[in-house]
Design a protein that fits this description.
With 285 residues, the protein is of the alpha+beta class. The strands form three sheets. A six-stranded antiparallel beta sheet has the order 5-10-7-8-9-6, with helices on one face. A two-stranded parallel sheet has the order 1-2. A two-stranded parallel sheet has the order 3-4. It is 35% helix and 23% strand.
Length: 285
């Protein structure tokens, strides 16, 4: 879809643009109806989403706040206010099942009728499938990440799953245990399954650095339920506070566990580090 948008933009001298919503409309309605379990998990945070769009050649991203105003906006107002007046749209590409406006009242036919009046062309893109004929979708990616199937997630995404962010200060417990970590905040409802992973870290050196990481709520040492990504560099000790890094997930070692005491936790971390080193000994960076 992005390749097609960028191609047409080059041919017609237009600006390749993407409109996205924050939060996800399903997340908004789940919160509104007090049904948080219905909110979709997040495959990527806004920073990673914008970076990915830039890599694929998109020049302009409109992040539209999905709130009551937008939820109640009629389909015709959506076209008039956002597409015509806001973006001055000349060519529009949407999925074949695209719906918009209050109670999803707008469809492709309405878009095409409006395009004839306002001078923009509408095209649709059919479902994209893999070599086995399976539909590639965000739901499939979420399912793969929820069960820790990183190979499947990589296949669907076209690249390894990753989380980026600025390194923050933590409780320094890892340093006390002999395994200092870099801590990243994780977006709420992260799609990835909590657990211990082999990862590589970008942003601290010319090459990615091998590491082992814990994604989860740290049940052995706190009970606040806040999800954190803690990465321990296997071969380096660096002052990374405040730096923007990208942690790329390569292999899942085990699920997150709650240990009875800190010595048990330390022994488990040591075993995880050994297993991560064994992974890199075989696969490299």
């Amino acid at each position: 879809m992005l390749a097609r948008v960028c191609q047409v933009a080059r041919e017609r001298g237009l600006v390749p643009s993407v409109m996205t919503f924050e939060p996800h409309p399903r997340e908004y309605f789940a919160t509104l109806n007090q049904r948080p379990e219905l909110a979709p998990t997040r495959v990527s945070g806004l920073r990673d989403k914008l970076a990915a769009l830039a890599r694929y050649g998109v020049s302009q991203v409109v992040v539209e706040r999905f709130n009551a105003r937008l939820a109640e906006m009629s389909a015709n107002a959506f076209i008039e206010n956002l597409l015509v007046q806001g973006l001055q749209t000349k060519w529009l590409l949407v999925g074949e099942d695209f719906r918009f406006g209050h109670k999803r009242s707008g469809d492709i036919d309405l878009l095409r009728e409006a395009g004839m009046r306002h001078g923009f062309e509408v095209q649709t893109l059919a479902d994209v499938t893999d070599q086995q004929g399976h539909r590639i979708s965000s739901s499939e990616v979420r399912t793969a990440l929820a069960v820790g199937d990183l190979d499947r997630a990589r296949h669907l995404l076209g690249h390894p799953f990753h989380i980026s962010g600025h390194v923050i200060h933590g409780q320094k417990l890892g340093r006390t245990l002999g395994y200092p970590t870099m801590n990243l905040r994780v977006a709420e409802r992260c799609a990835a399954r909590s657990g211990i992973y082999v990862v590589q870290v970008y942003g601290l050196a010319d090459q990615p650095l091998p590491a082992v990481a814990s994604l989860g709520v740290r049940p052995t040492v706190e009970d606040r339920g806040r999800v954190l990504l803690e990465s321990h560099l296997l071969n380096d000790t660096l002052n990374a506070y405040g730096k923007l890094v990208r942690v790329e997930f390569l292999h899942k070692l085990r699920d997150e566990e709650k240990f009875p005491d800190l010595p048990s936790l330390t022994a488990a971390i040591a075993e995880d580090a050994r297993n991560a080193r064994a992974y890199f000994a075989v696969h490299g960076l």
